[in-house]
Amino acid sequence: xxxxxxxxxxxxxxxxxxxxxxxxxxxxxxxxxxxxxxxxxxxxxxxxxxxxxxxxxxxxxxxxxxxxxxxxxxxxxxxxxxxxxxxxxxxxxxxxxxxxxxxxxxxxxxxxxxxxxxxxxxxxxxxxxxxxxxxxxxxxxxxxxxxxxxxxxxxxxxxxxxxxxxxxxxxxxxxxxxxxxxxxxxxxxxxxxxxxxxxxxxxxxxxxxxxxxxxxxxxxxxxxxxxxxxxxxxxxxxxxxxxxxxxxxxxxxxxxxxxxxxxxxxxxxxxxxxxxxxxxxxxxxxxxxxxxxxxxxxxxxxxxxxxxxxxxxxxxxxxxxxxxxxxxx
Length: 329
What we know:
Largest sheet: 7 strands, parallel
Number of strands: 12
Mean pLDDT: 93
Distance between the termini: 42 Å
CATH superfamily of the domain at 2-173 and 205-230 and 294-308: NAD(P)-binding Rossmann-like Domain
Strand order of the largest sheet: 3-2-1-4-5-6-10
Order of helices and strands: EHEEHEHEHEEHEEHEEHEHHHH
């Protein structure tokens, strides 16, 4: 069985790739010509060069495959060119799904995000059925992922495609080479760069458990359905304190009102427009911090057999990996 994985050079995609290899799949990965391929090193995979912006390369990538795991996305909370993120996350997804349909692939798993789902303002866990709309999406990333999911649903219905959607929460763990915005929280905490926090919450899951959820979705997921792949709900303070405990350094932190962060984020974004380097805080990230983003994975547990380990293990594995790979110097 040959499976194509997009995004395998990145964090979650590389975990999906490793999971498929362990399950006995022949794995082909789509990689941009100049991408960092350290997550692919020494693995028995086939690499084809291409890009979600190059739609012809996608037709070549899917040829001869049985399954597609479309994990790739432009995941940043600030971008100098929003149109490029739209072209990658929305138009690139459309082109890839259509290419896979034309090639007659047997199963397609599309990696969406809990960012596309609604949330409950009282802090209780949202589900796949919690209402959401484009108007509730904060920032370019969330809007593009919401629109991409709508495209996938439309194509699935119109062409009767074997597509299952998964909605990962907040992955944590090894091989976060960039790192992602969440991984940066871990690194900044280890470097004593998190003296304050805001009153928000996230759903934290080990990246390898989410990857396993992708495999389960391909085996047991119903076409047209979506499944939250998450873990434990934790406040940001609990996350920081857990990292402190793993690091053996208990820190005192101050609680900052979210609105106090807005002018700081505004200033960082203005500097970023000059340097073209992603700011550590953005207006969108601060606005998102006003929401408690808690989710339930009960549907995936019930229908897919999905399981997740304690969030402490995910954070411990992330800390170990970042230390071993010299991110904390």
